[in-house]
């Protein structure tokens, strides 16, 4: 796990500055390569082959690489390449990428099982080849104009070039709609994200950039649908086991997150079968409705692992520390507990496995259940109930019943894809119109929702939008702040299409979410964990805004509105309404707080 950077001209001092912004991503070693055509930078977090020879930028023949990520099947690929007369000087996966690229060209990506964002410089053909993994686990941003091509793991690194940047109105609307910025774009018009499952080639002489998608998940699902349920059932468990085992390969200590939910519990239990006294990590919170630690303790005791945990509080200092580190507005407040968990985990290990993506694959979200229930609710019932929801009481509790009912009714839309996005949303269209004024863009213009109204199409849109740009982004930011590598077994590319090809009834049976995974888990973890309600990594936003004068100040003080983007008077109305307990506006207030503080930091 590392930080990478580069651009299409020679400037050793500038590439060094880009590296400096990403030290937390790779505290172990710095590497720089320059010639007349390019500058490449690397910050290393050493995981596999800790020797200096495995450092980066790494050179092989006329290729140079800077690489962030891990290739879990590098030993198998290495053996295959040896049979093709390739010779290796290190035991690193980085060197395997270089040889694979020489042998197979861009098709090398289809051989890799892992997570990656990398750039290979071909000084013979004068090309830069950049690629991002199939599901977008690792970030990769770039800037291009008529003269310059710049790339990095983080926007802050690109900003070292002092280029003129302007706010992207689509990104702004996406952020205030869904709390994250979607595929392909960033908060700045001039800086792009390379999409997951894509690569690009930049020609250094012609300055022409071409992009191509190399992996099509929908096609892989269609292939998997031809298998019988019996074959899938047998294969899925074996693949989960193998995906986990591959992600334990490292030359540094490895552990696992254990939240007390089913996803991380299953992963930890499978590890414990082969690795006694394996280290697992949890955090708890003093606020009862947000605390899952007792469930994690139950699992840890049954599977007999070395359980490390702390009961913590998310205080003002942590909130400002994390938000001040953000490259662009990111409104998922669960980044705060994820950061705390990463911090205590890094004290014992350098790598941790995570249960992320289990909800998207196996059907775990309440919104998926809402999608199923909505089929039986006539539009006329919704129209009758909608005026009454304003009388539902507000609550500071996590995912309280009245909140769920309000979301179900007030964000109803006949378009099932938009309806699902509305249920996932942090704000209503009415709120966004008042908040963003002339900058407001309608929901159906903001996200590419794909075709179809099936349950699978809803899942695919979540994987493309929410998983890649919220969940995985959160994990990368939080873990990298503390130089911790996080690995995600459920996103093994062999497993994902197989699970998604299961029928809707195998994912959600009746009102039981994650039905298939829960059946699989019966012989692994306590039934109490399987049967418990989903909680998620939530935080008490509502209480924070009532108690924190510093957070209120970021929303009240006019000096934080230099962006001239938000309706100041409306924001004050939302805050006062919240403090006076007339409505729970904590989600939209959090988005405003993060945006204001982020923009203020940009101007300093």
Task: Report on the architecture of this protein.
This protein is α+β, with helices and mostly antiparallel strands. It folds into 3 domains: 2-215, Aminohydrolase, N-terminal nucleophile (Ntn) domain (Glutamine Phosphoribosylpyrophosphate, subunit 1, domain 1); 218-363 and 471-531, Rossmann fold (3-Layer(aba) Sandwich); 540-604, no CATH class. 42% of the residues lie in helices and 15% in strands. Strands 2-3-1-9-8-10 form a 6-stranded antiparallel beta sheet. The protein has a 6-stranded antiparallel beta sheet with strand order 4-5-6-7-11-12, with helices on one face. Strand 8 and strand 9 form a beta hairpin. The radius of gyration is 24 Å and the shape is globular. The mean pLDDT is 93.
């Amino acid at each position: 796990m590392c930080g990478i950077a580069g651009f299409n001209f020679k400037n050793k001092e500038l590439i060094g500055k880009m590296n400096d912004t990403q030290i937390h991503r790779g505290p172990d070693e710095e590497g720089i390569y320059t010639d007349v055509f390019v500058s490449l930078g690397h910050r290393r977090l050493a995981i596999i082959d800790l020797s200096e020879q495995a450092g980066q930028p790494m050179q092989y023949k006329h290729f140079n690489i800077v690489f962030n990520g891990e290739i879990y099947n590098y030993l198998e690929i290495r053996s295959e390449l040896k049979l093709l007369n390739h010779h290796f000087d290190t035991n690193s996966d980085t060197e395997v990428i270089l040889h694979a690229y020489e042998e197979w060209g861009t098709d090398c990506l289809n051989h890799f099982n892992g997570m990656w964002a990398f750039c290979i410089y071909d000084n013979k053909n004068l090309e830069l080849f950049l690629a991002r993994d199939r599901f977008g686990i690792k970030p990769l941003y770039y800037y291009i104009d008529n003269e310059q091509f710049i790339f990095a793991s983080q926007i802050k690194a690109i900003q070292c070039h002092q280029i003129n940047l302007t706010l992207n109105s689509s990104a702004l609307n996406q952020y205030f709609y869904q709390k994250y910025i979607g595929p392909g774009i960033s908060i700045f018009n001039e800086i792009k994200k390379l999409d997951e499952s894509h690569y690009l080639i930049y020609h250094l002489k012609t300055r022409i950039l071409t992009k191509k998608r190399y992996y099509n998940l929908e096609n892989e699902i269609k292939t998997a649908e031809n298998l019988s349920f019996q074959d899938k059932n047998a294969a899925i468990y074996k693949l989960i086991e193998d995906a986990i085992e591959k992600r334990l390969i490292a030359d540094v200590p490895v552990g696992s997150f254990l939240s007390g939910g089913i996803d991380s519990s299953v992963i930890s239990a499978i590890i414990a079968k082969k690795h006694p006294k394996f280290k697992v990590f949890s955090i708890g919170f003093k606020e009862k409705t947000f605390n899952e630690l007792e469930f994690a303790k139950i699992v840890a005791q049954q599977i007999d692992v070395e359980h490390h945990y702390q009961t913590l509080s998310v205080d003002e200092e942590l909130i400002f520390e994390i938000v001040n580190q953000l490259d662009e507005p990111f409104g998922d407040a669960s980044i705060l507990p994820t950061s705390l968990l990463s911090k205590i985990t890094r004290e014992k290990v350098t790598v941790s496995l995570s249960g992320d993506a289990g909800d998207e694959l196996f059907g775990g979200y309440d919104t998926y259940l809402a999608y199923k229930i909505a089929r039986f609710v006539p539009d006329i019932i919704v129209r009758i109930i909608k005026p009454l929801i304003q009388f539902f009481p507000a609550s500071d509790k996590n995912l309280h019943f009245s909140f769920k009912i309000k979301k179900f009714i007030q964000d109803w839309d006949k378009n099932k894809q938009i309806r699902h996005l509305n249920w996932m949303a942090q704000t209503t269209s009415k709120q966004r119109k008042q908040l963003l004024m002339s900058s407001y863009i309608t929901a159906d213009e903001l996200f590419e929702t794909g075709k179809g109204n099936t349950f699978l199409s809803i899942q695919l849109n979540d994987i493309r939008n929410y998983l890649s740009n919220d969940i995985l982004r959160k994990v990368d930011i939080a873990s990298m702040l503390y130089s911790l590598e996080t690995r995600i077994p459920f996103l093994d590319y062999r497993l994902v299409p197989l699970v998604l090809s299961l029928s809707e009834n195998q994912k959600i049976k009746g009102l039981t979410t994650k039905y298939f995974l829960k059946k699989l888990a019966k012989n692994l973890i306590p039934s109490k964990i399987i049967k418990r309600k989903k909680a998620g990594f939530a935080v008490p936003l509502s209480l924070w805004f009532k108690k924190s004068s510093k957070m209120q100040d970021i929303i009240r003080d006019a000096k934080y509105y230099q962006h001239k983007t938000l309706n100041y008077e409306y924001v004050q109305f939302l805050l006062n309404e919240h403090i006076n307990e007339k409505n729970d506006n904590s989600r939209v207030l959090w988005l405003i707080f993060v945006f204001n503080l982020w923009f203020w930091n940009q101007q300093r």
